[in-house]
Amino acid sequence: MAVKKTAVLLMNVGTPDEPKVSSVRRYLFQFLNDQRVIDIPWLLQKILVNLIIVPFRAPKSTKLYQQLWTKEGSPLVVFANSVQEKLEERLPKGDKVFVAMRYGNPSLKVALKQIKEGGFERIILLPLFPQYASSSTGTAVEAFWSAVRKWNVIPDVQVISQFYDRPDFIKAFAERIREQKPEEYDHVIFSYHGLPLRHLDKSHPGISNTTCTCHEGMPAHGTFCYKAACYATSRKLADELGLKPGDYTVSFQSRLSDKWIKPFTDKLLEEQAKQGVKKLLVAAPSFVADCLETRVEIGIDYKRFFTGNGGETLTMVESLNDHPLWIDALEAMVKEKMN
């Protein structure tokens, strides 16, 4: 049986090209005008995003990106390039790994042009989001097919839509947590990126998020429910780390309104501090690379907020980034699709 020449396409959300208002504004325009991100009527979305949100948010977001930026650039891109190189070294000769952001650079358009010109017979699309959500994995897959469907020759395409329940992913993330010695902390928080509640209801029509019991166990309708996957991720990590139910709490960060998934991480931090908790360890298992939400929101803002409310120490667990165990997990995912 002939071996197919394979292109592996890793996709993430994206980042501005530089921490300047013009660049951040351009990035936010792309990101927030996506109908899967802000799923409201088209005209209302355009008015809200382009005339209100972006003009006011861009200068504030720029200051945050300036805190995130390193000498090498955006951590999201730096680690993506490192993962690309390390993963490609483990693949058969002739197979290539490409990196693309849903918004910004490195662009999906350029990556797909290189794949098309490379004459690859198979594409393995791997959006780097452990838990499926329409506004992350969904939009990445949609953007991919929007371009590829126009090709004259469409190669074999295989998509890895989520991987939160893979033992190798859990092992890799648990190792990152273990490096921080969780037994030395009063409590562990698994903080996930938040989503509007209406996004959850769309993932399982007819079943309201208000009656779902996914915090207790994976329901039959939870296959593509983001909240259910987040709680399942936490249970698996807890099992791997030997944490008891009272040792950890699941929460959600980065909310834009009160109608997002609860509990909110900042509210939880306040409660923990008032209850006398002094040392918190916070991991963010919905991110595979450090970014604004981990290094700035958790590592700086939440740390300041927690200590300001009476806590003593808040430590952020570094993400998978280019950790060897993460490369192991990616290699296994890709080779399973190859075989």
Automatic annotation (TrEMBL):
GO CC entries: cytoplasm
Gene3D superfamilies, sorted: 3.40.50.1400
Q: Does the keyword Hydrolase apply?
A: no
Molecular function GO terms recorded: ferrochelatase activity; metal ion binding
Keyword hit for Cell inner membrane = no
Per the UniProt entry, what is one GO biological process? Answer: heme biosynthetic process
Top-level lineage group: Bacteria
Instruction: Report the source organism.
Output: Prolixibacter denitrificans
The entry sums up its family as follows: Belongs to the ferrochelatase family.
What is the protein's major site of localization?
cytoplasm
The function of this protein is:
Catalyzes the ferrous insertion into protoporphyrin IX.
Matching Pfam families: Ferrochelatase
**Pathway involvement of the protein, from the record:** Porphyrin-containing compound metabolism; protoheme biosynthesis; protoheme from protoporphyrin-IX: step 1/1
Enzyme class name: lyase
Q: What is its EC number?
A: 4.98.1.1
Per its UniProt record, what SUPFAM superfamilies does this chain match?
A: Chelatase
Protein name (record): Ferrochelatase
Record-linked InterPro entries = Ferrochelatase (IPR001015), Ferrochelatase_C (IPR033644), Ferrochelatase_N (IPR033659)
Catalytic reaction list? heme b + 2 H(+) = protoporphyrin IX + Fe(2+); Fe-coproporphyrin III + 2 H(+) = coproporphyrin III + Fe(2+)
Spell out the subcellular localization from the entry. Answer: Cytoplasm
Enumerate the UniProt keywords alphabetically: Cytoplasm, Heme biosynthesis, Iron, Lyase, Metal-binding, Porphyrin biosynthesis
Please tell me where Fe(2+) binds in this chain.
193, 293
